Amino acid sequence: MAKVEKGKVFRAAGFLMVTMVISRILGYARDVVLYNIFGQNRITDAYNAAFSIPDFLYSILVGGALSSAFIPVFSSYIAREEKDEAWQVASIVLNWVMLLLSFGIIICFVFTPQLIDLLVPGFDAEAKKLVITLTRIMLFQTVFMSLSGITQGILHSYQHFTAPAVGSMIYNLFIVGLGALLAGPIEARFPGYGVASFSIGVVTGSLASFAVQLRALRKIGIHYSWSFNFRHPGVQRLISLMIPILIGLSVSQINGFVTQGLGSSLSDGMIAALRTGQRFMQLPIGIFAIAIGIAIFPTLTSTAALNQIDEFKKSMSLGVRSVMYITMPSAVGLAVLSEPIIRVMFEFGGEFTAEATTAAAQALVFYCFGLVGYSVTHVLSRSFYALQDTRTPVIIGIVSIVANVLFSLLLVGPLQHRGLALAYSLAGIIQCGLLLLFLWRKLQHIDLRNMIISFFKTAIACVAMGAIAYGSAMVLGNALDLSSKLNQVIQLGTAMVLAVIVFFVITGAMKMEEAGLVWDIFGKRFRRIGFLRRYFEKQKQAAAAAEAASTATEPVENEER
After folding, report:
1. Which of 149, 468, 482, 501 is the residue whose CA sits 20 to 30 A from 113?
2. How confident is the model at residue 518 (pLDDT cuts 50, 70, 90)?
């Protein structure tokens, strides 16, 4: 790749990372406004449940499946300068999606009451009525989100990243703005339905997001055609790529339906508490695990294509170890500091009470058990994809659905909403374990010894880190008046800083190779923090020297052993 092209890619990646963080901050602001206006109760349970049908429609017809498959197909035509064929594929896809989506929206709109009975059987009649109203409003979001998904795929193929990234930020801005602005007037006219203002914000935000991308698309040049040629080679290839991804995405959708259905029979606010806990659990996965998986995927693909199996194993092993290195302390930190984190982020004197904090914190603790498992799954799944095996991850994904259902039924009684979070975590651990087992059977040797060593080294550092975080939070909690937001921030900030220092000092002393890769992926974006850069580089050099010395002095072991 030319130097200029590399620079463009890195600048785009940096811009996307920044906009992703901003979008997540806006998403957090949306939740803060929502919960402080209405609280964590049956109203916000209904609002969260109302996303189920629109999200399912979007995931099935567009979502990650179409986006992941569309970009390679469309880009391949553009790269070969076959723009007419590229736009022919885009037009066919758009026409079919809109046709199927229109049919799906009509069906879901007419049968919303029956579908809601299936999704939240534990809600009373009044709560179900609210979910039906909010769902029917948000069904219109699906149209604009689907258009945005296809438009985004086209723009990304043209190396245009700005408009889609800005669109995602505008989406959250509209939800926050219209939700806060209209909640009072709607509540005054329709008591209990003020939360519909946020649903209106969802629809308006999705429209605004699409409008931003459409403007960018018009600059590129739109070449739309009215065609439903299902047998076009590009469309057939796209469908073949979509199917395994679609099944994989369905796993998370079904698991979500199971959790929500059982959660609807629990006390008010538990669905909202579960959603809040899961969003915090997903943060390290979204920021770190997926980034490492994406960064290492090209290497896995190329080494597999060239039949360089030893290099493939090393890359996969380093990817798994690096994910464990960064997500295990994240899980421990989130679990140990769950209550201070939720308190700082959501308690602002509104309707989000101390009891709501406790419920969300409990959900977060039990979700953290599965954080590492779900994170490592991103590397292991990509390892199978690189080996052109999409069937195994799909089968294992189905097994994880069954496990989640069984564990949920067993644990929801004794542990309530905590049992549902734990069931989700156990299903993720089983999925990760099975992927590792079948990859070991496929490749025989997968550097399991180094993975185990890395796991225990990281675990040792995490135990010390967790003890320091918990102890300092307890001491400061007893010494400070936590009714003050400043004191809450001091408690949480001090505990987090001490925990991070302890973790890096201990893992640095153990000269863990994983620290080097983590710095390569994330640390270079913070070059101005000179001492941090020098620290990681020194650890990386020491690890490389130790590995070289070990290789030179130790006898070569039989790899199969």
Report:
1. 149
2. low
With a cut of 70, say whether residue 114 has pLDDT above it: yes
Assigned token pair, 183: 């909640």
pTM: predicted TM-score of the whole model, two decimal places? 0.80
* Domain match, 201 and 307 both: no
pLDDT of residue 14: 54
Q: What is the pLDDT of residue 15?
A: 64
Same domain, 256 and 277: no
Report DSSP state, residue 558: P
241 and 289 both lie in a single domain: no
Mean predicted confidence (pLDDT) in 217-229? 85
Same domain for 489 and 520? yes
**Residue 76: domain span:** 1-218+232-265
Q: Report how far apart, in Å, the C-alpha atoms of 271 and of each of 5, 196, 275, 355, 508 are.
A: 46, 18, 6, 14, 41
pLDDT beyond 80 at 535: no
The tally of domains found in the chain comes to: 3
268-282: burial string, b at 16+ Cβ within 10 Å, e else: bbbbbbbbbbbbbbb
Residues 36 and 151 occupy one common structural domain = yes
**What proportion of the chain, given as a percentage, has pLDDT over 90?**
50
- 211 with 349, same domain? no
Residue whose C-alpha is closest to residue 245's, from 370, 150, 382, 153: 382
SS (H, E, C) 91-155: HHHHHHHHHHHHHHHHHHHHCHHHHHHHHCCCCCHHHHHHHHHHHHHHHHHHHHHHHHHHHHHHH
DSSP one-letter code for 555: P
Query: Tokens standing for 422?
Result: 């734990």
